[in-house]
Design a protein that fits this description.
Blueprint: H1 4-35, H2 41-63, H3 76-94, H4 99-116
Helix pairs in contact: 1-2, 1-4, 3-4
Length: about 120
């Protein structure tokens, strides 16, 4: 049986990769909107700077080993508390945009809701 910790970490990696892909799509959309004269070069550049900083933060987090000092019998809430504290600390230390914490925090909450939902027979 896969531990709660391993399930959580696998899902978190997938969610961060998904968020990374979504930001890449937004960057491409900004380029298209600039080419179509829907936005100015200034608006595109300002938004791209923020989005690229978010991408760097996500890539940095994905490069971590995803190993936390968590007991084998730790509850999901204990795991989440530790991961969120680590994430906040790392984002502040590396000076990534503060909004990135909110984006990842939302994904973490989504994972928690999934893991706490009733399990259909024979799944997970």
């Amino acid at each position: 049986m896969v531990s709660t910790y391993r399930k959580f970490i696998r899902l978190l990696q997938l969610e961060i990769e998904s968020l990374h892909d979504e930001i890449e799509i937004i960057l491409a959309t900004l380029d298209r909107r600039l080419a179509d004269h829907e936005i100015t070069d200034y608006v595109r550049n300002e938004n791209c700077a923020i989005l690229r900083n978010e991408l760097l933060g996500l890539e940095d987090f994905l490069r971590t080993e995803f190993t936390f000092d968590v007991r084998d019998d730790a509850s999901l809430d204990e795991i989440v508390t530790q991961v969120k504290a680590y994430l906040r600390r790392r984002l502040e230390e590396r000076q990534y945009v503060p909004a990135l914490y909110g984006l990842v925090d939302h994904r973490i909450d989504k994972i928690v809701a999934y893991l706490k939902s009733p399990e259909p027979t024979g799944s997970r």
